[in-house]
Amino acid sequence: MSKFLKLVSFLLVGFSIQAQDAAKAKSLLDEVSTKVKTYENIVIDFKYALNNPTENINQESKGNVTLKGNLYNLNFMGVTKIFDGKKVYTIVPEDEEISISKFDDKDESAVTPSKMLTFFNSGYKYSWDILQDIKGRKIQYIKLIPISSKDQRKEILLGIDVQTKNIYNLIETGKNGTRTTLTVNSFKTNQPLSDNHFTFTESKYPNYYINRLD
């Protein structure tokens, strides 16, 4: 076999393996999306870590979020964010300030709470990555590469629990070297929630300054 034919054969095998890996990755992500849609609501406790060696930044914090469809109630770093389907309410007790703004649905790159379990459905190239044993759980990683060249993220690794098909963690690496990791500590579904869990009640904050951005 000539060198040229060997090279062509090698490239074809390589492309075939890549295509199979991408198909496997997409299939697993589809399973995750399908399962998420079966839940009435989801309550997540998580840990968030940010690392930037260049700037010598290492930060860790914890938070929790309740999701129901595209509605969310997020508590993170002392701030509460509520999305009622129309507007986002950002409540900052430390400053006694509340910002009210319309939801920006044009920002496709933002992994908002309501999209954190389904953001990967479009805008990315997929590939099958490593399988890790973490505390007795099999975590399969899928690598996501943003398609848009304007996206400031270099890649995202999405860790999925092989048994439950729930997301275990998300590792995001920026083009500037910043690495952020969101790890799910607790994942509960179909919890009893109050009727106003995703509702902002202004009367609860009589002394707060309200900044209406829209």
From TrEMBL:
Membrane-spanning segments: none
InterPro entries linked: LolA/LolB/LppX, OM_lipoprot_carrier_LolA-like
Keyword Signal (UniProt): yes
Residues of the signal peptide: 1-19
Keywords assigned by UniProt, alphabetized: Lipoprotein, Signal
Pfam families in the record: LolA (PF03548)
Name used for this protein in its record: Outer membrane lipoprotein carrier protein LolA
